[in-house]
Amino acid sequence: MHTHWQIPRRTFLRGLGTTLALPLLEAMAPPVRLLAAAGAASPAAPLRMAFVYVPNGMNMQQWKPAQNGAEFDLPPTLAPLQNVRRHVQVITGLAHRKAAANGDGAGDHARASATFLTGCQARKTAGADIRAGVSVDQIAAQRIGRATRLPSLELACDKARLAGSCDSGYACAYQFNLSWRSENTPMPPEVDPRLLFDRLFSNPTGAGTDATRARRELERKSVLDFVLDDARRLQGQLGATDRRKLDEYLTSVRELEQRIENASRFTQALPDRRQPDGIPDTYEQHVRLMFDLLALAFQTDSTRIATFMLAHDGSNRPYPFLGISEGHHDLSHHQRREEKLAKIAKINHFHVTQFAYFIEQLRSLREGNGTVLDNCMIVYGSGISDGDRHNHDDLPVLLAGGGRGTLAPGRHITVPTVPMTNLYLSLLDRMGAPTERLGDSSGKLAGI
Asked: Are 85 and 74 in contact (CB under 8 A)?
């Protein structure tokens, strides 16, 4: 008689100072025939939620689709989404009223990022008495974060600044953080792929983490070398499909590890640079590596909640690889000059291209009868609409993923001017963290 061998969903490969989470395998669920006999439904894959932020608004003429519904034409900025358009919906009409001045004067960039996930008016201060509000990701983390090894992940490509004044009398903490654990406590993001990799794969107790990393680097060993014996034992007990899936997963982990090592090694060879921390030398490589690690974190159910700030609002980063030597923030004050608008559109297109890459990565990861993307809700957007006007209504917003069958992607929808936080309340419901109010919310956004 055949006996189905089952392993727990939270199975890890373990080695010296190393813990490797696994993707969802067939062996982690009882066979369908046993579930049917017991009258139980097939176990659901976990639902994930992430928020991706881009700064300084958009060239909205190149962003906003002309038609509503499924038969809309992708405008130039959204063209990179062509291969994944049926997994993404464009939402027009959402607003962040608390990012407006409301009597506080200048400082729209600071307010844009501080309000984006909180829906709260940031206190205008350059001192330590900062105040915003609890962000949507942390509301979810406080409710369901215990289900995963990491309650949430906070990522960025700009190193956080927690002190000093950055925008018209607003503390730098507002511009360099998306996630807020409390109204006074931001969650500084991780910018170093090497440190993020260690968080995902080091022993969760932290025991031996530094020593293990040092030993790996000294002996040029992979994290996989420390869990190889455990992996071999597990593979011997898996079916053919799971063995192939595990092999593909281990290969992807090693490829990511090599990319991080290469980024560190080649950056160190450059003159006049301080000791790097594994951050790639090019911005595009940095963004993609962080997206790859986030996809891996979702695939292995290491976390279900994440934020990623591609650049802080007010960023004046130039994009020489796009032929743009001017700073992004300077260009955003375009005064309707066509040459500046064209460059803004080019930067916007670049950011959407990176987001499309991430969505395709999630779609490529099989999970149960679907993909990891089917079980995700990924918000992409900015706290400013037009960078020259600094307006916070009619925001550029994308919502990607299937929400485990609860979302209807592949459309452009226009909603009445309502708070962005209404969308967040609807996502929190789906995450199993229902909340009555978030910032300036006025209800839940239906029809998504």
From this structure: yes
pLDDT in tens, 150-192: 999 999 999 877 777 889 999 999 999 999 999 999 999 999 9
- Residue reference for tokens 């990891």: 372
Q: Is the pTM of this model over 0.70?
A: yes
364, 294 Cβ separation under 8 angstroms: no
CA distance 420 to 397: 9
**213 and 233 together in one domain:** yes
pLDDT at 29: 60
CA 9 to chain centre: 23
CATH (domain of 116): 3.40.720
Domain that holds residue 185: 48-191+283-295+302-448
Tell me the pLDDT tens digit for each residue of 371-423. 999 999 999 999 999 999 999 999 999 999 999 999 999 999 999 999 999 99
Based on the fold, state whether residues 162 and 61 are members of the same structural domain: yes
**Cα(83)–Cα(353) distance, integer angstroms:** 11
Q: Does 35 or 345 have the greater pLDDT score? A: 345
CB 174 within 8 A of CB 121: no
**Is 149 part of any domain?**
yes
How much is the pLDDT for 434?
97
> Which residues 6+ apart lie within 8 Å of 364 measured at CB?
371
